Amino acid sequence: MEAVVIAVVVVAVVLFFVSTYNRLVTLRQRVKEAWADIDVQLKRRHDLIPNLVETVKGYATHESTVFQNVTQARAAAVAAGATASPQERAQAENVLTGALRSVFAVAENYPQLQAVQEFKDLSENLTATEDKIAFARRFYNGNVRDYNTSLQTFPTNLFADAFGFKPEEYFELAEAGEREAPQVKF
Question: Kind and range of the H or E element at 27?
Answer without folding.
Answer: helix 2-57
